[in-house]
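Hi there, hope your week has been kind to you so far. Thanks so much in advance, here it is.
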Amino acid sequence: MGKLTEILTLAQARGRALERPYKGELTPQEAAELLRLAPGAKIVDVRTRAEWDWVGRVPNAVEIEWNQYPGGVRNPNFVAELQRQVDPQALVMFLCRSGARSIAAATTATEAGYSDCYNILEGFEGDKDAQGQRNKIGGWRHAGLPWHQG
């Protein structure tokens, strides 16, 4: 079994265990590896513009807000923007701050006809520590994966 198949099999087993309606759950490291191994794979970052600008960006990620900033209102154009920017046949990995909005985005994309959707566990910033701060426990950035500020 190749590395690509191994990662997808693990992610799909996690997704089944959590009863997700989309393909599966990936660790940040697995998502980064899939970008390298799977031609056409995309990360869709569903955080807000403020988060991209002030917290950091994943290079080459497709950026589509799930909730609009300011105000936090759900983006009514999410599916239309996704359809305009991402092939429905692509392997699509959804990322948010901590892994919650990306679950909703992966579910919505699956309902819209995307058949190969995955959630990135831990999100960009990971879970809060005992002091209520992020960036120390899990997440894309804490894992040392590629990102940039601003």
User: Anything to note?
Assistant: The domain at 3-120 is CATH 3.40.250.10 (Oxidized Rhodanese; domain 1). The longest strand covers residues 42-45.
